[in-house]
Amino acid sequence: MKTHAFLFLVLAPILAWAGDFQIDKGFWKVLAQPNARWELAKAAPDKGHKPAVVRIEPYDVRVVDGASVARLRWAHVLDGSAKDIGDSDAGRYTQVAVTVAGIYLLSAEMDDAAVAKALKRKPSRSDPPRAYVGTGQNQGRFLTIEKGPDGPMACMGAPTEKEAAKDPGVGEVCVSANKGVVFLGGGWAPAGRICSSLTRRQAVFLRVSWNSPHQAGPGAGPS
Q1: Is pLDDT of 29 > 50?
Q2: What percent of the chain has pLDDT over 90?
Q3: Does a structural domain hold residue 44?
Q4: Quick check: is 28 in a domain?
Q5: Is 95 part of any domain?
Q6: Angle at Cα 107 formed by Cα 189 and Cα 182, nearest 5°?
Q7: Which of 151, 137, 146, 144 is nearest to 172 (CA)?
């Protein structure tokens, strides 16, 4: 507990909570930009290997019923070999649709007709994003808003099955309105390791935050 408190005090000036600033509309549109690419470097490379990289690229960018829609390609690159790791059930969303109301978290196999049908429902996350805690009603999903070096970050997460003693039992992906996908960690990252375009100190802050309560009683957050 003392270590966690110390880290929070050291990193608080770097990453502040959302209450300290305002998030503008249009937060999610960065994820549907053509010709974008974000690379997240593994925080702790395996011995004898070059640092692994997770590369995210929007493609097939188009407009469906007024929404900006893009498929997302997720590749885990290790020692020159790339593996597709896209999985919308594990925070590595393979298709998104962005409207003035928010973002729809979809999957790549959905065609335009399926996307148009999804757009008739409320968005998966609002724009601007709002923080909420995990509840029994929403299967423990949560969203935190943090202030990063390049503006606000929305960090979405959910409980995951623990695969090792040190596994935090939660997966998390963070999006910056200016820098796109900036963080992938816990059960959603390859081998449960942190992949981040943040500095090491900033990534450590998010790792420590996994030990903070993301859960609450019924009615504490949206579904």
Answers
A1: yes
A2: 52
A3: yes
A4: yes
A5: yes
A6: 35
A7: 144
Residues in the chain: 223
Distances (CA, A) of 78 to 48, 84, 122, 188: 11, 12, 38, 17
- By the 10 Å C-beta count (0-12 exposed, 13-18 middle, 19+ buried), 66 is classed as exposed
Domain count, the chain: 1
CA 176 to chain centre: 9
- Alpha carbon distance 193, 161 (integer Å): 14
Express as a percent the part of the chain with pLDDT over 70: 73
Structural contact between residues 105 and 124, judged by C-beta atoms closer than 8 angstroms:
yes
Residue 117 has pLDDT above 90, yes or no: yes
CA distance 174 to 153: 6
Residue 219 lies in a domain: no
Q: Which two tokens mark 174?
A: 């963070």
- pLDDT in the model for residue 216: 44
Domain hosting residue 81, numbered range: 2-209
